[in-house]
Amino acid sequence: MAAQRYKLTIAYRGTRYHGWQRQAWVDSYKGERPPDGEGIPTIQETVWRAIVSVVRHPISLVGSSRTDAAVHAKGQVAHFDTDQLQIPIVGMRRAINARLPADILVRKIDPVGGSFDAVFSTLSKRYQYFIWNAEDRPAFFPDLAWHRWQELDRDAMRQAALAFVGEHDFASFAKPGHGRENTVRLVHCCDVSWRAQKLVIAVEGSGFLWNMVRIMVGTLVEVGLGRHPPETIAGMLSAKDRRAAGATAPPHGLYLQWIKTAETATGVPPPPEAVG
Amino acid sequence: MAAQRYKLTIAYRGTRYHGWQRQAWVDSYKGERPPDGEGIPTIQETVWRAIVSVVRHPISLVGSSRTDAAVHAKGQVAHFDTDQLQIPIVGMRRAINARLPADILVRKIDPVGGSFDAVFSTLSKRYQYFIWNAEDRPAFFPDLAWHRWQELDRDAMRQAALAFVGEHDFASFAKPGHGRENTVRLVHCCDVSWRAQKLVIAVEGSGFLWNMVRIMVGTLVEVGLGRHPPETIAGMLSAKDRRAAGATAPPHGLYLQWIKTAETATGVPPPPEAVG
Fold first, then answer.
1. Rounded to a whole number, what is the distance in angstroms from the first to the last CA of chain B?
2. Is A213 in contact with A140 (CB distance < 8 Å)?
């Protein structure tokens, strides 16, 4: 019988996890525990176990974004294949969620065509970074926002953020060792907005380099502190040198908001020609 | 030199703690670790250590409400005495907060007269209980709300809540072993409000019995589930028997919002006649 591919949309609080996937891993491992990690699970491993316990055969779970340790997601995308077609979608989602811990939630399961791929079908992504900008710390969510008690020039940050919009070489805004030859990326928007203590930096783009959003945020905060004028972003970009940009913001303020993917023919069971 | 009494207003996320104070403790201990508890700290102990490290002498820290393990507070009130009058209030608050973990915050320190007492000066308190009423669990704050996925008749809950308002014997709504002879309490208001998935039950009163708000909430949820009509609350109250009321809601949805206290003469240093 033909296998069916499913697209998952997943939310998680990254605090307790070693990221979506340890960087050294290969994408499609078949259930062996990684040699390192000392018992700290990854999101991928945890979701993988829940799905396998429902479909009762080994799967390969491919995620769209390798979020780092402590980074959160409201809309991570992943895919897997199964021939367990007798389980209805609603029941499968409930069964998987019942096997997941309280800080991971499968929000949606959609049947997709076999040419859908969580990595290669990605069209664009949105990240948000949450800064708690007040003298007092956020005692109820210390792991969900970056606390900056200093006064920040928010208008200067908003102005500086505009310099990121468009197609640029983001070599200065990538962690060395990112392993990408091409560091040119298209940023659709980069907005700084706020309401009282809550400061949010939202970035949308076709793709991101390792730590790119966190270095952008760290740099914008330095602009907010008056260490650089907003106009310096352009020069930092053209330097193509990590040392030209600001510090990397910590992971726990970062949220993967959503991922837009090119959808393929869907339906259970799928037409045979659509199965990869 | 005369001692000065300070009133503290404290916020905390109760998740990691054994409550404000273990129930077996006496109020004014002088720094000995309790025999049980296995290394899980209390809020009181943690705040006590921070203050002692700032004022550099033993103190007695008296809290207004003994919140249970996992219960949160936005405005717990406590008091202590010190003769360290050379530390300005702003500096003292910063120094104490710098010595506290990320999930406890001293929001305010006010000098008060020596007749002020966190327990006996309390006039009224407000608790709020936060229910996440949606099919999907709250993956970002599983320890800050009670997840009820069932559909709840919110209007029935609101109507039932009104029966708690006024002066009643709350013996049916107290955990056995509460140790109070008089179980009559005055509830000023009991409101059920909501916005989308977020359901909040707010209760204000002159004082509360052990687990009283949690049993009220558990009972109101049973009304919302259709297990009791809203009119049964009156009969539960008049039964004066714990078995007449509903189940106890879990602690992690409960917040001590504020405590209204009778303020006494304030100022640093205080007039000598105001020092207890």
1. 13
2. no
Does residue A68 have an active-site annotation?
yes
CA distance B11 to chain A (A): 7
Q: Which of B27, B36, B68, B241 is catalytic?
A: B68
Per-residue pLDDT tens over the stretch A178-229: 888 899 999 999 999 999 999 999 999 999 999 999 999 999 999 999 999 9
Which residues in chain B touch residue A140, judged by CB atoms under 8 angstroms apart? Answer: 11, 13, 72, 103, 144
Residue ranges of chain B whose pLDDT lies below 50: 24-35, 265-276
Q: Which of B11, B13, B139 comes nearest A11 by C-beta?
A: B139
According to DSSP, the β-strands at B4-12 and B104-112 are antiparallel
Domains in chain B (CATH in brackets) are 4-120 (3.30.70.580), 123-257 (3.30.70.660)
Cβ–Cβ below 8 Å for B140 and A102:
no
Chain B partners within 8 Å of A142 (Cβ): 102-103
- Please tell me the predicted confidence (pLDDT) of residue A85: 79
Q: What is the DSSP string of B176-244?
A: TT---S--EEEEEEEEEEEETTEEEEEEEES---TTHHHHHHHHHHHHHTTSS-TTHHHHHHHHT-GGG
pLDDT digits (tens, 9 = 90+) for B47-106: 999 999 999 999 999 999 999 999 999 999 999 999 887 888 889 999 999 999 999 999
Enter the pTM of the model: 0.86
What pLDDT shows up at residue B259? 97
> Does the beta carbon of A214 lie under 8 angstroms from any beta carbon of chain B?
no
Q: Determine the pLDDT at residue A138.
A: 97
Task: Count helices and strands (H / E) in chain B.
Answer: 5, 10
Alpha-carbon distance of A40 to A37, in angstroms, equals 6
Smallest CA–CA distance from B72 into chain A, residue: A140
Is any Cβ of chain B less than 8 angstroms from the Cβ of A11? yes
User: Which one of A11, A103, A140 has the shortest CB-CB distance to B13?
Assistant: A140
Res A1: pLDDT:
59
Query: Which residues numbered 73-102 in B keep a CB inside 8 Å of some CB on A?
Result: 97, 102
Q: Which of B140, B141, B197, B256 to mutate to test the interface with A (most CBs of A within 10 A)?
A: B140
Mean pLDDT of chain A: 90
B232 backbone φψ class: left, alpha, beta (φ>0; ψ -120 to 50): alpha
The pairs formed by A226-235 with CB atoms below 8 angstroms and a separation of 24 or more are: A226/A153, A226/A156, A228/A160, A229/A156, A230/A156, A230/A157, A230/A159, A230/A160, A230/A163, A231/A160, A231/A163, A232/A160, A233/A160, A233/A163, A233/A164, A234/A163
Is the minimum CB–CB distance between A139 and chain B shorter than 8 Å? Answer: yes
